[in-house]
Design a protein that fits this description.
The chain starts with 5 loop residues before the first helix and ends with a strand. The N terminus is likely disordered. The strands form 4 sheets. It has a 6-stranded mixed beta sheet, with helices on both faces. 43% of the residues lie in helices and 10% in strands. By secondary structure, the chain is α/β, with parallel strands linked by helices. The longest helix has 20 residues.
């Protein structure tokens, strides 16, 4: 008998049970070692004897057949052994060691990799995505072992329409694209930013059930202005300054046309573009292609869910959101995206003439209409001098002045400046006009967060709502242990704190939550007559579905990792 390790066995009991049903066969056009070298079809020692004969694998594997369940436990034992052996080592060293062991599994056996990820999303999400992904991107050229995704560069101009057909998958549903110009809060990392699309898509597979055979991470390499990378002998990208202006846009145009030609229904997510190109490309493509910008729109959607949830934690009706005083620190694409969506929400609730009490600060302080030079994207959120003078503020007022005078219900950071919510600022939040003020330190990675969770509770008080974009260690408040890396949408539950039990429940049913969100998106698409359907289900059938039926439709189409019987076909 294979002995289950205690922790791994516990995970198995909590997670979705291994199916006893025989999945449908999968047609392969490979045999022998070619199958073992393909992470999508490879089962390692899990190939049954009949399959080994059928696919020419006899003699290429050890004779013992190890089941999927046993392989799962074996990997988890190796992972926990790594944790034990690296105790006391520097945090960055340990994080990269954990990333490597997961990456090796990903390179070898995708089915097992995604099952491990799904069942242990709470533990592994911070490794495959933020904060560890930032460290991976910074060291990507040195860590590179095997290509993943596609790379389009300025040297490929005129060739992208043919290049797109080099990708082996016949169908792609989701593309995450970056040009590496603003990776998290780390700046220009050039081609090394490919780690962001890879990690983000892995999260989508695990949490949303997107088929990993139908995803595509893409790096658009137009050069880098990072001199350190240009001088690095291991750097794998173009050794040239970034393209600008029409030269830059012509490269993005060609890529978008190529993608649309081959996969006209694929969603293209723009990720971590510097602000000027984030807004420019969004306006340029949003009405021509199925695309969105995650920093402007994705972050805004998650933040708005958290802001609305905060209103509920204060015991107020959602309509009171229109009266919330919110200070946003950071006037980049993410901060402006949050404000734009929040303003839209206020106008839906209180009418087009509503005047939201939102205050925007950048590196030069409070932004008002008195400022000589205002970024056009920030101009709609600049406060009138007469309005802020009533509060005793003026153009360029610093953060502590604004917090003390405004007494905001919410302090939201998307500045990328670690520690900007210092002790003085956090203590000033104790004077908030809210009985449960909210502090959102949303910048990534962890070192760039505006404050640490422990500092927020220590200085602003235990009666706050706290959320962050990256994980922090648990904060012990006596009766409740709070894990502070939470999806901001969780605040919609109306809870002030997130307990271990709540977090475990969320990690176990994250796909149920995703299905509810997906169903809501479908209903919105149907209402706006934008829905096209999926498979045999068309717009008419979607319109006739109840809310429950729409949720079940989404769940039915979620991918889940199991070993399928392989059948060779020439």
């Amino acid at each position: 008998m294979w002995r289950l390790a205690g922790s791994a066995a516990s995970n198995l009991r909590r997670a979705r049970p291994f199916s006893t049903c025989i999945p449908g066969p999968c047609i392969v056009h490979k045999r022998g070692a070619d199958i073992l070298h393909d992470p999508w079809f490879n089962k390692d020692t899990g190939f049954p004897l009949t399959e080994r004969d059928r696919l020419g694998l006899r003699g290429l594997l050890p004779p013992r057949v190890i089941s999927f369940e046993q392989q799962y436990v074996r990997f988890m034992e190796s992972y926990h052994s790594l944790e034990k052996n690296t105790r006391g080592q520097p945090e960055g060293f340990v994080s990269l060691a954990k990333w490597r062991i997961l990456n090796r599994l990903h390179d070898r056996n995708e089915t097992l990799y995604y099952r491990v990820l799904i069942d242990n999303i709470e533990d592994f999400a911070p490794i495959i995505y933020t904060p560890t992904v930032g460290l991976v991107c910074q060291n990507y050229s040195g860590l590179f072992r095997r290509p993943r995704g596609m790379y389009f560069s300025a040297k490929d101009k005129g060739e992208m329409m043919s290049m797109i057909y080099n990708w082996p998958a016949h169908q792609v549903d989701m593309i995450v694209l970056t040009d590496g110009s603003r990776i998290l809060g780390l700046g220009d990392l050039g081609v090394q930013g490919i780690g962001i699309p890879i990690g983000k898509l892995d999260m989508y597979v695990a949490a949303a059930g997107i088929n990993p055979q139908r995803i595509l991470p893409v790096m658009l390499d137009v050069g880098t202005n990072n001199q350190k990378l240009l001088e690095d002998r291991l750097y794998l990208g173009l050794r040239q300054p970034r393209l600008e202006g029409e030269e830059y846009l012509s490269i993005v145009d060609e890529f978008m046309e190529a993608v649309h030609t081959r996969w006209p229904k694929a969603i293209v997510q723009f990720e971590d573009f510097q602000m000027k190109w984030a807004f420019e490309t969004l306006q340029r493509y949003r009405k021509r292609f199925c695309m969105f910008n995650d920093d402007i729109q994705g972050t805004a959607g998650v933040a708005l869910a958290g802001l609305l949830g905060t209103v509920r934690t204060q015991g107020r009706p959602l309509a009171d959101f229109a009266n919330q005083k919110i200070v946003v620190v950071g006037a980049g694409s993410a901060g402006l995206g949050v404000l734009n969506m929040a303003v839209q929400a206020v106008k839906r609730m209180a009418g087009a003439d509503a005047n939201p009490q939102f205050f925007l600060l950048d590196k030069d302080g409070l932004i008002t209409k008195a400022r000589r030079v205002i970024d056009p994207a920030a101009a709609p959120f600049a406060k009138a001098p007469a309005e802020i003078e009533k509060l005793g503020l003026m153009e360029g007022a610093n953060l502590i002045e604004v917090v003390k005078k405004v007494k905001p219900h919410v302090l939201l950071g998307l500045s990328g400046v670690g520690g900007v919510f210092n002790e003085e600022v956090l203590k000033a939040m104790r004077e908030s006009d809210s009985t449960k003020p909210a502090i959102f330190a949303m910048s990534n990675p962890t070192m760039n967060a505006e404050c640490a969770a422990v500092d927020a509770f220590k200085h602003a008080g235990e009666n706050i709502v706290f959320a962050s974009g990256s994980p922090f260690k648990n904060v012990d408040l006596g009766m409740v242990s709070v894990l502070t890396w939470i999806g901001l949408g969780t605040l919609l539950s109306g809870a002030r704190l997130i307990s271990d039990g709540m977090l475990q429940a969320a990690s176990e049913c994250i796909r149920d939550i995703t299905a509810e969100v997906g169903a809501a998106v479908i209903r919105a698409a149907v209402a706006e007559e934008l829905a096209e359907g999926h498979g045999d289900i068309g717009p008419r059938e979607l319109r006739q579905m109840s809310e429950e039926e729409t949720v079940e439709h989404v769940k039915h189409n979620m991918w889940f990792p199991v070993y399928s019987p392989l059948v060779h076909e020439k």
